[in-house]
Amino acid sequence: MTSLPPGSVAVILPAAGSGSRFGEEENKLFASLGSRSLWMHTVEIFLGRAEVGMIVLAVSRRDRERFEREIHELSGSDRIRVVLGGVERSDTVAAALDEIDRKSANMIEWVAVHDAARPLVRDTDLDGVFDAALRTDAAILATPVTGTLKREPAGNRDGGVDTGAGFSHGTTFDRRGMWVAQTPQVFRLSLIRRAYDRHRGRRATDDAELVERMGHPVALVPGAADNLKITYPADLLLAEALLSERMKNPHS
Asked: Could you tell me which residues are beta bridge partners of residue 84?
C-alpha cells in the first residue's frame, strides 16, 4: 500500500457547532469519554499518524479558551492550531483552510476534514482513505446502505403533513448503490481550495459535494460501522463500550 509523505496532511476538525441535539448547554465535544473530553480522543488518533503535520481545530468564540486549555494535556500539542469557526460548517472549514495557507509553509499537500465527534475512526480505515486520496486526489470513508430506505412525503420534511396518528406514510426507496458518508474526507489541498473558492455560499451537505460540483469524482472507501458520530447521549454510551473493548483487544 502506498502512503502519503510524512507531515503532508493537515487535519481540519470543525468544532464550532452547538451540538444542540445532544441535549446539553455545554458543547458535546467536552462530554466525558473515558477520563477525558470526547474531542481529545479524536485528536490523539491523528497525532499518532506520521502523515499528519498539522491539526486545525475550528471552534466557537465561547469555547475557544477551554479548547486551548485542554490542548496542553495532549502530547504533540505543538501541531495543533485553533481558529474561530463560522456560522455554517462551510464557513468553519474555510477559516481552517485559511489557517493552513498561513502556517503550512508549503509543507501541506493534503487536507483531511473529520468530524471532531467521531473519536473511534480506525487506523486501518485511515490507511485506506489516505491511499485512495493519493491515487484519486479525493476520497472519503463511507458505508453501504444495508437497511430498507423509506421516503416520506415532501410536505412532511417541512412539518406540513401529518396523518393525525403521530406518524406519516412512506414509500420504499431503492437502496442499490447508496452509501452513507463518513469522515475523514481527504482531498489534495489545491483541489479543496478551488472547491471553496467556487463555493459562493451555496449550501452543501459535505465537503465532497463541493468537489463533485467541479466535476471531480470522489472515491468511496468502505469504512467500519463503528466510526460513529456522537450526536445523542446514547451514542456516547455506545462509544464508551466500544472504546473499552478496544482497550482490552487493541488489535481487534
From this structure: 59
Amino acid residing at 78: D
SS3 call for 236 = helix
Burial class, 93, CB count within 10 angstroms (exposed 0-12 / middle 13-18 / buried 19+) = buried
Query: Cell 451555496 appears where?
Result: 202
131-144 tens-digit pLDDT: 999 999 999 999 99
Amino acid identity, position 43: V
24-70 pLDDT, tens digit per residue, is 668 899 999 988 999 999 999 999 999 999 999 999 999 999 999 99
This prediction has a pTM of: 0.89
Handedness of CA 149, 151, 157, 163 (dihedral sign): negative
User: Could you tell me the maximum CA-CA distance found in the chain, to the nearest angstrom?
Assistant: 60
Among the listed residues 181, 251, 174, 249, the one whose alpha carbon sits nearest the alpha carbon of residue 209: 181
- Cβ 86 vs Cβ 60: under 8 Å: no
Cell of 150: 423509506
- Residue 176: CB atoms within 10 A of its CB come to 6
Cα(82)–Cα(177) distance, integer angstroms:
38
List, in order, residues 6 or more apart from 244 with CB less than 8 Å away: none
How far apart are the C-alpha atoms of 60 and 85, rounded to whole Å? 6
